[in-house]
Amino acid sequence: MMCMVEENATSFAFRGANGTDMFDAPSFRLANRFNDYGVITTSNDVFYVNYSHWYQLIAKANLALYAAELPQIVWASGNDKAYVIAQAKFFRAYCYRNLCELYGGVPIVKEITSTARYDFVRATRAETYQFAIDEMENILPNLPETSSQIGRIVRGAAQHNLCQLHLALGITLQQDGKESEAKQAYAKSIVYGDDLIDKSVYGLMSERFGSRKNENPEFYFAQSEKDQIEQHLYSEVGHPIEGNVIWDMFQEGNQNYQEGNKEAIWVAQIDYQANKVEDGASKLQYSRIYGPVFRDGGRAHLAGMMEDAGGRGISQIIPTRYTRDIIYEGKFADDLRNSNAVWRRLFLGNVASSPYYGKPVPWDATGFDEKVLLTFSTCFPVSCKIATDKYTGLEDGQNRGNLFRDEYIIRLAETVLLRAEAKWRNGDSNGAASDINLLRNRAKCAHLVAAGDVNVDLILDERARELVYEECRWNTLLRMGGKVAVERIKKYAYWNSEVNASLNFEFNLWPIPQVVRDTNKDAPIAQNPGWENR
What we know:
The chain is mainly α. It is built from 20 helices and six strands. Strands 1-3 form a two-stranded antiparallel sheet. The longest helix is centred in the first third of the chain and has 26 residues, at about 80-105. The two termini are about 30 Å apart.
């Protein structure tokens, strides 16, 4: 998996969604922007490293499938062999799903290659999705419903991917003018969503649970650990923050099905003890990468790198105005996902000379002026998904830049949103609204959506509210095809005036990396529309 344990431009784009409608670069890191189409070309490393990453994993899956049939390999049982093969095919199909969402149809490689080849033939997008579907459906009988081993692939992971793959195939078929086949694909997407949402061991978490279910998040207004001892807690000066089930889902020890989280389908394991002993990559650098820098933009009122300031952030990626404010405007404001426990907008001044010392710092105070881009792009709300009030490992010398909680790859909330989209595309707006309201009811939203409200924008907005810092947004925007990605990037990019000036062409796929096209000299690979000669 390429996840945000890596700190590089490639992971920022794939998992971090940099350059989409949701995330951008701050003013002092404009070199990290991934929406300046005056400099983004088909040779950009982001495109190549992502493409290469998935094919490297495909090669490993193919090797595992080859080795599984070698006569010298001895299996404890036929079931053991079947499960290993199922896992290898799962990862191969998962790779092709990602490749197809981002790049469209790609060469389908099913065997190991022992000699150099320069003649790989590109499949169509529909063929690539269908290959991944066939793989996933083939392995369903050999995947267990649950596993005692945390992090292992289970049947629900394949069912979720089948829900997504059939939806994506339906969109592709519809755009190819194959309406009848598209409706069949949407119907299959809904069936797999039903199997997982209504007929499995999984369910949305609706009540408080887990390691901190009887606690609330708590912060000192302090610039140092010494100050924490001497200064007051938020709750002691009349600003308590109330925990909730969304907050619980992102506390350490609460991410796995085996630990009581019935929403967790596939979870990457992050282990602090492993990090200490041998695996330095076993950490989530979320507070560092995504965290604000109040000590720069808001230093007159809120300084330091303690928990109250969101930890040791360096703002490599920032939420756009869309992510931080627009999706919660008006009737959408009353939502647990917009509460201070989950998306904290409450910050008490921790600088003794500030008039806001021990009091809420208003966003329009000096240092938070939207007209001053340096400050506005480094001072923003903090999500409980990227920071905590209790950092692990401080006694061992860890800083407040890393989290050591496990990381969701699939949770049932996203399956609900996929089924909602499939229902809407299949003409069932009532069913789509009901699905979206499953999540809005869980989040105790005052406003519920109606059938007439459902469209692409509402679906994307609800995905942003539910899956911020989780979703691979580029995959979502590009699998929708049409002008969805370009129009939303132009509308919501943080530096949208610059984006509108440079994004003077249309695309709905990432380009095939130029080095791939150059190397495959014996079977020319056509470039994706919009990227020719770039």
